[in-house]
Sequence to fold (823 residues):
Amino acid sequence: MTGLNRRRLIAAAGAALAGSALPRGARAQAAYPTRPISLIVAFAAGGGTDVAARSIARYMEKHLGGGASIGVVNRPGAGGEIGWTAVAQAAPDGYTIGFINAPAIAAMTVEKQTRFTMDSFDPIGNLVYDAGILAVHKDSAFQNVADMVAFARANPGALTVGTTGGSGNSEHLALLQLQRLADIRINHAPFGGTAPMRTALLGRHIPVGAFNLSEGVEQVREGQLRVLGVMAEQRQSIAPDLPTFREQGIDLVAGSSRGIVGPRGIPAPILARLREAVRASMHDPEYVQAAQRASIPLRYMDGTEYQAFITRMTAEMRAIWQATPWR
Amino acid sequence: MFDALLHALPAVLSFKSALAMVVGMAAGLVVGALPGLTVTMGIAVLIPLTFGLDPLVALGVMAGMYNGGSYGGAITAILLRIPGTPASVATVLDGYPMAQRGEAGHALQVAVVSGTIGSVISAIALILLAPPLAQVSLLFGPAEYFWMAMFGLATVSMLLGDDALKGLVSVIIGLLIGTVGQDQLNGSERFVFDILDLVDGLNVVVLLTGLYALPPVLLMAERAARRGMDKALLRFDRARSVLREWRRYIRIWVRSSAIGIVIGILPGAGGSMTSLIAYNDAKRIAKDPDSYGKGNPEGVAASECGNGADNAASMIPALTLAVPGSGVAAVILAGLLVHGMRPGPQLFRDNPDVVYGFMLQMLVTSLMLAVMGGLAATRLFGQVLRLPPLMLTPFIVLLTVVGVYAVNASVFDLWAMLAIGLLGYVMDRLDYPTAPAVLGLLLGPMAESQVRLALTISRGDATILVASWVSWIMIAATLFVFLSPVWHAWRARAAR
Fold:
């Protein structure tokens, strides 16, 4: 912790020095950042979002240039609400940005009275999009989505599907969509975490599990699990041999994303710098290679595209909530 | 496999890897000793910094940190009664009274030797038995975890204190605190009072430092003695050698290591529960169970040995099934992924050098613990006790405040810690054991969510709870624990 702070201080001092040494015209350009930027992560250190943030931070520092320094600040709690509120309420000066996870954050604004809305943010760029999957144990009788749907129709409410979060997690929302699209009833078992759910699936304590593709792709490659369907428009590059739901006649598209936003109202030149830093990092071969090795499904969206994505997600969540409130 | 081990050996013992292990261990000792800073956090901060490094160098730091951190927690537990991690709660029980008697040096020695033995045995289990042992974790579904939690709760309430009733009351306090927060199954918020900081419930570190660190500070301030502990009382050089007394500890080491390994491979249990169950087991087989909790070094040995044995074992399901057995194992998995290692059976096939190298690093760092922990850290930190209480108390308060704030960066937690500290003070004064409360908070939510998950899966059919032989073993063990005081009383009467 102290090491980090010292590093930030040195970087800030360096940036200040560099700024004063530059000629006038250049200084206006390089006036940002003059102090360390806080990157808020709404989850504890060590989680997936945290590791993603700490990784991209190094590359954003490099591409912002001028000795920029980005410190990851963990503000965990309340399923992300504490950290996201902190981002939304920060001064829009470009010195506080944060990671959000859609659709989880959008679902939260729909299901409860949050102190922010999805309009409280200026999108900077999306990094990751991980499609949802339904998977079964390798010895399961279900070979494909049709088998599972047939079972669910014959035994209403008897099909148990485990998910990795709490009630209202993104997989739960996907299951609600599936119920509507396939006209079935699912018995939902939220395990509160990926590891316990995957163990239960491997140990055959539950028949079907819903989680993200990157979290299950290894077990699938090893033949321990079988994917019934991927909840995406088309087949995914990290696992091109896995069929989508759409191919199997059910138009289920769901997944979870990770991206960077700031509080709404960041001055245009600074917002542009931040967006450019994310764009450059996402095209940095070193970063791309590290992410590929770790099976992280990168999906870069620029600010405009990301904004459209958030808006669409929010509308979708509102529609699901109106049809089937999940809590 | 032995081929692969021999193949990996030179890389493990290379200068870079050795340096990485030393650095990791030093950092782990510090991080473990500070309440609030956890090994999980330390490794998470580390991962991005290891991008450009050789995987074995990165893993060496992590292995060092893991083994160092689990002993680091014992240092403050013994000296200051601050369990650096939940896992060192059981170490406090006998370690702190020992230190107060002037046997801090001996207590730390017992801790480091026992921790080393536990982690060495665990690392050997990881190397030899990883694939078969991994299957054990698959036997545990929600129903089995529920019984496991019940077993843990029964153990701490019945066997910890001298008075089973007071133990039960303490467990219930923990269980009640555990009900605060958002319900996992239906998302409703319980006892949250619209306070955002309470939605995730109370963090166990807050409870831990409140219950353990603050009451002795208040006691110390009450006494306000003017002088610190005499240097002679610390007795580092004259401390009895634990190894020479190995006959006394061998049974505890073997049993605690076995307990640590078994619980370590179960995802979700781990850590804190291991050391308490090992402690209770040692107390149960002891000739003089009444001396436990009053400064019996065997208690420290059991707790630290169980804690050490948990470490490498929790990597077994992580490496073989990609299912982490503990929070630390989970971040190490993330670290492996970043370096392109995909955990699972294929890891052993595709990257044998790295996986066996890492296993060896776990073994080497376990052995290093004896040197770095025993010789350096113990002597250095032990000097703390020589401070006069008047200087020591504000220092402890500062340490706890920093530690608790570090968990969630939340000021609310500081007030919660203060309130719990007062509660802990009252409990101490009335002679209620506090460890059951901690386990109540840890295991209560686990028991609740798992039994409800099991019933959700079975759609309300309660027979799922007794459907597997693993459940029956857990039930039998729980009953055994509940009935053992009765059995002892009966035997005592029969003997008379």
Notes: The first helix of chain A runs from residue 2 to 21.
